[in-house]
Amino acid sequence: MKIYFDGCSWTFGGGLVERREQDRFTAVVCRELGVKEYNFSLPKSSNNRIVRQLLTENDISEYDYAVIQMTYSSRLEYYDESKKDNRDKGWIRIANQDIKPCKKGRKFSDEQWVFWNYYYKNVFDETYFNKKEEIQYKTIRNHCKINNVPLLLMTVNNWDTKLKFDIELEHTHIPRLPCNHPNSLGHRVIADEILSWLTTHK
Amino acid sequence: MKKIYFDGCSYTFGAELSDRLNSRYSAIVSKELDAEEYNIAMPGSSNRRIARNLIEHNLDQYDFFVIQMTKRLRTEYYDGSLWQKVKFNPKTNDVGNKNPQKEFWTKYYKEIYHDEYGRIDEIMFYTLIRTLLKDKPHVIIGLTHRGTIFAPSCQVPVDIVYAKGSLPYAPLGHPNGEGHNIIASDVLSAYENIL
């Protein structure tokens, strides 16, 4: 059995540090099922990246199931050819928390910061991000459906989204680390929900 | 009576035609099939707008869909009350004076936008359009341009493709009346093949 996993830091195992590879929910699920783990997530991933990975970097028809965790709709990515040796092959991930007023730890030059700050404050709004999320959501669902791959679609954006997901992750029943990511027990809770879904979608 | 859904950019809108509403290809196709024409194409449209329109419509109301995909670098944003079209003009090297966010978008196209981004966007919108319409009679049209970053060629497997220079054109580069007759003929052939 092959299960395709993608998402943002929640799926990557953000905050678990040295326990990441053993305790993240994708590892727990695959260990319980005795199958190899295919986890394409990265921290600060956008839904743009998740769709790109699904449509162009991987062949979903080679998998038996897809477990995809969508993230905050305001995140995005752009391509910088000069950075094509980075771990995401030239794609630069942007999350609105990168647009902090504080210069410490900022990943952008001052000029880039002004540009992206303007983007989030003046150009794009909730209506745009909601529609972008809907387009990406339908693309993911339709692409898996047309390839006959059962899809479990989760989100961490459940307080803002208007869409229906199979599992909403931003809930208090998932224990967290101080950085707000799930702790090892939280990943176990998510893994159990996925395993339960898999048993009903054989 | 049948109802046909058409969307696209200025090609499908019928730009530069003197009798646009009667001589654009959507009108010819609809007349030939004795169908009601529903054409929501707009000059400057993006594939994002075309995909958004599809998910905002009840598709069960239509008997046939003709979707003309456009240049992948185009996009749109919401200004609080309306969706604003964004298209970069390589001749003037900006997005035009009508765009209220001209400075931002011009900088975006000059410093941030890359054709690889456009290529991925095109694949996403193509996948969404094709899968939304998979159980419905439909034709997707693509355009190839010079193959440069600002005049890209469509790289997804559309049903009908028009290369730059393959149709008779009006002075500003849109199909003329004869060009629309050719497109209509191709769409009707594709429709017959679907049936």
Structural write-up:
Chain A is of the alpha/beta class and 202 residues long. Chain A has one domain (3-200): SGNH hydrolase (Rossmann fold, 3-Layer(aba) Sandwich), CATH 3.40.50.1110. Chain A has helices spanning 9-12, 20-23, 25-33, 47-57, 110-123, 126-146, 184-200, and strands at residues 3-6, 38-39, 65-70, 76-79, 91-94, 151-155, 167-168. In chain A, the strands form two sheets. Chain A has a five-stranded parallel beta sheet, with helices on both faces. In chain A, strands 4-5 form a two-stranded antiparallel ribbon. Chain B has 195 residues and is an alpha/beta fold. Chain B has a single domain (2-194), classed as Rossmann fold. Chain B has seven helices and seven strands, in the order βαααβαβββααββα. Chain B has helices at residues 10-13, 20-23, 25-32, 47-55, 102-112, 115-132, 177-194, and strands spanning 2-7, 35-39, 64-68, 75-78, 83-86, 138-144, 160-163. In chain B, helix 4 (47-55) packs parallel to helix 6 (115-132). The mean pLDDT of chain B is 95. The chains are: A alpha/beta (202), B alpha/beta (195). The A-B interface holds A 48, 51-52, 55-56, 78-81, 90, 115, 118-119, 122-125, 127-128, 131, 134-136, 138-139, 142-143, 145-146 and B 48, 51-52, 55, 77-78, 80, 101, 104, 107-108, 111-114, 116-117, 120, 123-125, 127-128, 131-132, 134.
- Low-pLDDT runs of chain B: none
Overall domain count of chain B: 1
Q: What is the number of domains of chain A? A: 1
CATH superfamily of chain A: SGNH hydrolase
What is the global morphology of chain B?
Answer: globular
